[in-house]
Amino acid sequence: MLHRLKTDFRLSIITLLGASAILGITPFAAMRFMQGNTLAGSVDTAILVGILITLIYAWASGDTRRSGLVLAVIACSGAVTVGAVVGEPGLFWLYPCLVTTFFLANPRIAVFLNVASVVVLMIHGGAFRSDVQMWSFASTAFVVSACAYVFAHRNHDQRERLEHLATIDPLTGIKNRRSMDQELDLAAANAERTGLPYALVLLDIDHFKRINDEHGHGVGDDVLTDLVALLKQNTRKSDQLFRYGGEEFVLLLPGVDGIGLKAVMNNLQQVLRKYMKHPGGAVTASFGVALLRHGEGVDSWLARADAALYEAKETGRDRIVFADLHEAPEPAADAV
């Protein structure tokens, strides 16, 4: 539970705002029923029920985008209704709604909800003692909405930058190991649900330490970026490439198995043999390949691919070892 709140920003906002609204509105709903104001108490109760259902749906489905939109609509429409029924004291409930809409829905929808809420209250007019009060309320509502928009926009930009830094390898520009763990979990879940085959490829640049030692880390970095460029050019858009660490990379291939997988791997090996170069000569790589088994966990899947890679390096490098098929094509005669 805490992990989901830490990793899902929108869910944490929905939970925080929903819980705050429930705690804040419940006493007023009870008080209004006790005072005999059944209409206002019923409105508060309806708002509470809507918020509670939205919270449960968000947690159960993980659909925080739709849940956030529904919660924003409930909050704004509820605040407008309370203002129309209760009068001037109910106006204050709209201010927190004007702020939170920008964290629950996209900016255009949030702007529409805020403007519509204020306009409806102004047209109704029953909550205001005078035109001066009405226009003062409209002005302050506009200022609050503008400030909330700016803050939410800046927050969104900074969050995206942090997520980019946390999930992208700065040298190669591809996803890092943290992203890989998430994507492999999703792949395993999707395979169980749909039966789609998935292949996992671990590849390691042969003698990479020697390249760094003899030609410098700058050349080593060039080799890494060249490798990534070649792999991206020779794989599908649906395939995903990750930097596992150092000179090791992981390639996730959905929808391939058997003969098709052999053809893909042989093609990648030939492309690297042909185009990967450095000042000392050709650059090759070793490959460990594992197909996801039915009901298999990610750790086991990754371990089998890693064991296949280890076998490829131990038996001469520049080889492909299939964990499931126990086959490895022979290296080319001119391979290094």
TrEMBL record:
Domain named GGDEF: residues: 196-325
Transmembrane feature ranges: 12-33, 39-60, 67-87, 93-123, 135-152
GO molecular function: diguanylate cyclase activity
Cofactor(s) listed in the protein's UniProt record: Mg(2+)
Reaction equations catalysed: 2 GTP = 3',3'-c-di-GMP + 2 diphosphate
GO BP annotations listed: cell adhesion involved in single-species biofilm formation; negative regulation of bacterial-type flagellum-dependent cell motility
EC number(s) stated in the UniProt entry for this protein: 2.7.7.65
GO cellular component: a single term: plasma membrane
Keywords: Membrane, Transmembrane, Transmembrane helix
Class of this enzyme: transferase
Entries under Pfam families matching the protein: GGDEF
Gene3D superfamilies, A to Z: 3.30.70.270
Highest taxon in the source lineage: Bacteria
The protein's name in its UniProt record: diguanylate cyclase
UniProt source species: Marinobacter salsuginis
